[in-house]
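Re-run requested by the PI after the first attempt was lost when the workstation crashed. Everything re-entered from the original request form. Ligand of interest: C2E.
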Amino acid sequence: QAKALGRNTYQFYTEAMDAESRRRATIASALRKALERDELRLVFQPRLSLIDGRITGVEALLRWCSAELGEIPPTTFVPLAEESGQILRIGEWVLREACAALARWRQHGLTDIAMAVNVSVLQLLRGNLPEVIAEILQETGVPASRLELEVTESMVMANAAQSTAALHALRKIGVSLAIDDFGTGYSSLIYLKRLPIDTLKIDKEFVGDITHDPDDEAITATVITMAHSLGLNVIAEGVETEDQLAYLREQGCDEIQGFWLSKPLDAQRCMAFVHTWQPSTIAAVPPPY
Ligand code: C2E
Ligand code: MG
Ligand code: MG
Ligand code: MG
């Protein structure tokens, strides 16, 4: 009987795995047509300086509404696009679209905000990213200093030597560089010190628990101190509550991003949000004692 049960369990898992890989194949093939069919779009999430209460920039986040499959989240399709290499084409579209949006906002007077774009390590390692970006900046008239590229810690550390070289090449053209999802990978401090980066973004997993979990509180405080001692700017992502905000401010975190400030918005709404934001709004948040 145990044997039969074992076989059934095995069969169950195999079928579940088949269904999962079929779904992934379906998504990957629909994704191949997404660009041509105009199914991709960007939304933008603002971030805030805790030092002066200003909006310092926005992060471009990719959305895909497939005609066949409906809305698919980037956490599902970005890894598939990386596996198939499609992220190269899609990533270039994202960079061009994000810079074009920023160029329009700049014409409306928003000249001191930065555009952050997530870049896959595949784009980073392909070699011609600096040329592609230089061309896009020229086309759109966005200054290099207003573009920030975010690469995830785990991806960079998995290819540390090559990534370091690629980041140096990007640095040369004047863009800013941020390590995303910091705390989820296993950075060696030696590498971190060698990376030509400007910013660390603390992963939302830690931020989400800072007011309940002493470990996450300690990790967050330590990352802030460490980043500052390396001369880096620190952004906390996933800030949802006033308590989290107050704690981060007390710890000296430079900037925050998250639902507390705003969800990701379409270009029009995001521009309006930045235009109407009053730095004094932030002063109303009380300290955590
Ligand atoms: P990420 O770069 O770390 O982006 C932050 C994610 O957290 C976004 O999810 C954002 O919507 C979400 N978020 C923001 N504030 C909060 C909050 O207060 N609470 C919670 N729970 N979540 C919050 P999203 O848009 O689903 O993107 C997920 C990931 O997909 C991104 O993580 C990034 O790694 C990847 N991604 C998104 N767009 C692109 C892209 O254009 N290129 C590449 N290579 N990756 C992208
Ligand atoms: Mg990011
Ligand atoms: Mg992140
Ligand atoms: Mg936790």
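Saved to the shared folder this time. The pocket of magnesium ion (ligand 2) is lined by residues 59, 118, 150, 180 (CB under 6 Å).
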